Amino acid sequence: MSTNKKLTTSWGAPVGDNQNSMTAGSRGPTLIQDVHLLEKLAHFNRERVPERVVHAKGAGAHGYFEVTNDVSQYTKAKVFNGVGKRTPLFIRFSTVAGENGSADTVRDPRGFAVKFYTEDGNYDIVGNNTPVFFIRDAIKFPDFIHTQKRDPQTHLKNPTAIWDFWSLSPESLHQVTILMSDRGIPATFRHMHGYGSHTFKWVNEEGEGVWIKYHFRTEQGVKNLAPDLAAKLAGENPDYHTEDLFNAIEKGDFPEWKLYVQIMPLEDANTYRFDPFDVTKVWSQKDYPLIEVGRMVLDRNPENYFAEVEQATFSPGTLVPGVDVSPDKMLQGRLFAYADAHRYRVGANHNQLPINRPKNEVNNYQRDGQMRFGNNGGGSVYYEPNSFDGPAESPEDKQAAYAVSGYADAVAYDQFDHYTQAGDLYRLLSEEERTRLVANIVEAMKPVKVEEIKLRQIQHFYKADPEYGNRIAEGLGLPLPQEV
Q1: 55 catalytic, yes or no?
Q2: Where is this region: Disordered (predicted)?
Q3: CA–CA distance from 341 to each of 36, 56, 344, 474 (Å)?
């Protein structure tokens, strides 16, 4: 095969021989002056960046968001205003606990992270395929993830650690019920909903605010995998979900989701029956119905996995005017942790990479650092305030204020009802779905080595619904704990 392109080194010089090392005579040794060989081997040793601590295994795609309903009365965020307006986006789907080479079809929540390239900068919605999470305070996150990873001695997954943590953290019960239900193993990335999970604040042009929650609802329908088929696929095709997404887009079967929001007046947060900032809880759709915002379409595969999917960085703190945060304790921790993870993993200038770079002009006083792209600000003014017409703040884009009160202290959420919503979810399931839920939990708890942990967890199931607890206890061959 002929080509007019010359192979070059990384500094652009043409390569005369890419098949044979430079040696002293035909039998060597190899010469250190073969700088092309040295460059190839040195770069090869550095081809991997650290994998994500969580959400390491993932797949991504490009697409667009189209507004289908005017919500300008609620938010000034331009991405959500103007029926028919389209904004380019990139999405990354992922599993949470496994390593980069793990199987797609394991029982695990799925990451659902969307980057909108808006005219006011990038906006990220970084959520999961579940509306709630296992914990509600970021201080517990490192401990929780440790239980999902490998035991430091055996280097094996440790069901005893997993259920020990969950049994000592009853706020996890709602998410555990979802995880162990049919929804715990989606059929594909295309056949699952996505959620922002946390509560956010929308602010309109008049400075009026509302609390909101995001819901991406799949237009393909929700489909899940039976555990035996999921296990078979994990062995035969561990990249099943990655392959499915790529192939669907490649053949023009573009997946779609509709974006809805639930909207809560600010004052309702003080009187609602659950704390609306607690990410282990959902808002009833009877109280706050879904309001359509637009549709998301994925229509283009990445050209290069590493450049686009692996180096894509998302953070719930990547915000635009019109979207503010809430006092959600888990969200508050993520605002720091996500961007900090990217600074460690990809570098301080990760937002200058093409996949992360905003479409609008970036003007700031950040300079230098590893992998600085462009002209590094050139000779322009490099501090603020200044007298040389450098970029200046725009007061109209400040985040809206909200009232706070109380003492500086390590304080838990006021509400400790961890059982009502988990029980409601159990009772919403059909008898067949309940049977599969119980079977999944029993199978997952059997390897737990400490009976006290099993009994403690059974109490939580029983408090959510007596039938729920009884069936788990029977499946494990254990008596109901005396406490219940």
Answers
A1: yes
A2: 1-28
A3: 33, 12, 5, 43
- The total domain count for the chain is 2
pLDDT above 60: residue 440: yes
> Which residues span the domain enclosing 430?
135-168+419-484
- 246 with 313, same domain: the answer is yes
Query: Residue 406: its pLDDT value, please?
Result: 87
Instruction: Write down the pLDDT at residue 400.
Output: 85
Q: What is the pTM of this model?
A: 0.95
- Specify the CATH number for the domain of residue 112: 2.40.180.10
- What average pLDDT does this structure show over 373-395? 91
Choose, from 55, 191, 193, 418, the residue flagged as catalytic. 55
The reply to whether 125 and 256 lie within a common domain is yes
So what's the pLDDT on residue 391? Answer: 92
Same domain, 240 and 352: yes
d(CA 210, CA 323): 10
470: domain CATH number is: 1.20.1370.60
Residues 246 and 159 in one domain: no
- The secondary structure of 102-132 as a DSSP string is S-TTSSS-EEEEEEEEETTEEEEEEEESSSS
* Spatial separation of the C-alpha atoms in residues 436 and 458, rounded to whole Å: 17
Sign of CA dihedral 322, 327, 330, 336: positive
Q: Please, is 274 exposed, middle or buried when counting C-beta atoms within 10 Å of its C-beta (0-12, 13-18, 19+)?
A: middle
For residues 337 and 139, the answer to whether their CB atoms sit within 8 Å is no
407 labelled ligand-binding = no
Selecting among 36, 81, 122, 128, the annotated active-site residue is: 128
Confidence of residue 438 (pLDDT cuts 50, 70, 90): very high
